[in-house]
Amino acid sequence: ANLNLVSMENQILQYINTQTLEDSRKFANEQNVKHIEVVGVLKSLESADIVKLTQKEEKGWVLTEEGHTFAQNGTPEALIFENIPVGDTGIHKDELIKKPGLNEDLYKIGLQNGMKKKWFTIKDNVLKRAVEKIEDEDKKHLNSVNSGATVSKDVVDGLKRRKLIEASTVKYYQVDKGTAFTLERKKKEADLTSDMILNGTWETIEFKKINVNAKGKETLTGDMHPLLKVKQQFQAVLLGMGFEEMPTNNYVESSFWNFDTLFVPQQHPARDVQDTFFLSDPASAEVKDQEYFEKVKETHQKGIEKSIGWRYPWSAEESKKNIFRTHTTAVTARILRTIALQKEFTAKKFFSIDRVFRNETLDATHLAEFHQIEGWVADKGLGLGHLKGIIAEFFHKIGMKDLKFKPAYNPYTEPSMEIFAFHPLLNRWVEIGNSGIFRPEMLIPMGIPADVNIIAWGLSLERPTMIQYGYSNIRDLFGHKVNLKSIRDNPICCLVDKNQKAITKLV
User: Fold this and answer.
1) Per-residue confidence at 503, pLDDT binned at 50, 70, 90?
2) Per-residue H/E/C for 311-356
3) Tens digit of pLDDT for each residue in 374-429?
4) What's the whole-number mean pLDDT along residues 319-328?
5) How many CA within 13 A on the CB side of residue 420?
6) Radius of gyration for the alpha carbons in the chain, expressed in angstroms and rounded
7) Quick check: 336 and 448 in contact, CB under 8 A?
8) How far apart are CA 389 and CA 387, in angstroms?
């Protein structure tokens, strides 16, 4: 019968009280228990210095999972034979596979091997005994291998063919008395209690040793996504540069705030259904700032000051259409209108990092939603040199010191520039963002003072994250195909310069 752990411990202590236990495998086989269970008890005794273990190893054979089953219950062919009744009646296959220890798969294995051994015959799915009795030699051989006994090459080859054993370096233990050997282990206390201190028993009680190097139990908790790690990194950089973060929790915007306030004409391709998601309910928004609404309309149709506008019949209905915002600059427009309504202008620096939506064709580098990083400064007398300087400072702090600028076109900035940087991890120049100075056609209708300029730049969050973490397909980073294990195992975000020196870390 199998021993419980306490009984097994007592048996081991009684054994080594008179002699050395040369091979722990032999003890496991004699007691009909798994060797790993014996090893567990021995390790526990060793931790209390009751026994001394000497690890030994030898190349040999171990049982596979199926081999362990057959060693304990018998081979399938032997089980089939034992369940065939004596005489000419036999038993039908369908009834046989319902017998204890058998199933469809084991029946197939046992039938093949039993027929080879000529133990039984089968006709019309009825099995009959072909011999009076059998000896389950393979079961004996399996138990011999399990105990470490030597078996012949023919036996090994046969068990290997059946995939019941596999080559392994077998580890076992020689067991001797330890420095604190005793036939009966006393229970050691794990905790020091207030009662022990008050009554003084703590002085004579033996306590368990505490392993201060043991690792605690790993707990499954929420893990930060790489995008959030890099987002926090950029937030720390921008806050450190004195920027305030804009409230960007408004995913739905009207076309007025998303396009018209930015002087984007209503015929612009970006406003087509091929590029923008329109809402069906509610389909349109209410106008709350009618004065500003009319000024934007006039600017589009007729222009303002030296501008001649776009000169087309501007549609209020088109402007009221609700959409998923295509950029966070819609939030910038709202903040600037609020600043313009203040009695006295004060310089401001704002940024945002949040989700935007575009009706893109999905591929390895494009999704229908992504995160935009945007920053802008409003002050008197700002120019292109200030814009290039603040962009250089920002990208320097995230590890990209070498920058280039290329003239570009944006409907709401003039001049406009594309930003290129030499990326230290890719070792090449890459396009990383866009920038410019907001046009008067955008600022004058808002009421921004004429001597105030606003410089702005933006980039995506996904691209630097993909570079930082080595993703080549954006769908492996964001969306339903993300491997959750990779989220749990990915490292902290640490931006480095081209000399691989850490600039900032997410702690």
Assistant:
1) very low
2) CCCCCHHHHHEEEECCCCHHHHHHHHHHHHCCCCCCCEEEEEEEEE
3) 999 999 999 999 999 999 999 888 877 889 999 999 889 999 999 998 877 778 88
4) 93
5) 10
6) 39
7) yes
8) 5
pLDDT one-digit tens code per residue, 447-478: 999 999 999 999 988 888 887 777 778 787 87
Per-position DSSP letters for 118-183, written without gaps between them? TSEEEETTEEEESSS----HHHHHHHHHHHT----HHHHHHHHHTT-EEEEEEEEEEEEE-TT--S
Identify the CA nearest to 202 among candidates 190, 185, 211, 184.
190
pLDDT single digits (tens) 274-293? 688 999 999 999 989 999 99
Which residues make beta-bridge pairs with 54? Answer: 174
Burial 259-295 (b: 16+ CB within 10 A, else e): bbbbbbbbeeeebeeeebbeeeeeeebeeeeeebbeb
31 has pLDDT over 90:
no
- Note if the pTM is more than 0.70: no
CB 78 within 8 A of CB 120: no
Q: What is the 3-state secondary structure (H, E, C) of 402-469?
A: CEEEEEEEECCEEEEEEEEEEECCCCEEEEEEEEEEECHHHHCCCCCCCCEEEEEEEEECHHHHHHHH
Question: In the prediction, which pLDDT does 393 show?
Answer: 92
- For residue 357, the SS3 value is strand
* 8 Å CB contact between 495 and 503: yes
Q: How far apart are CA 410 and CA 424, in angstroms?
A: 29
Tell me how far apart the alpha carbons of residues 503 and 237 are, in angstroms, rounded to a whole number. 10
401's CB contacts (< 8 A; 6+ apart) are 395, 422, 497, 498
The two structure tokens encoding residue 189: 């206390």
The tokens describing 294, both together, are 């009319």
pLDDT at 186: 78
106 band by pLDDT with thresholds 50, 70 and 90 = very high
CA trace torsion 360, 362, 368, 373 (10° rounding): -90
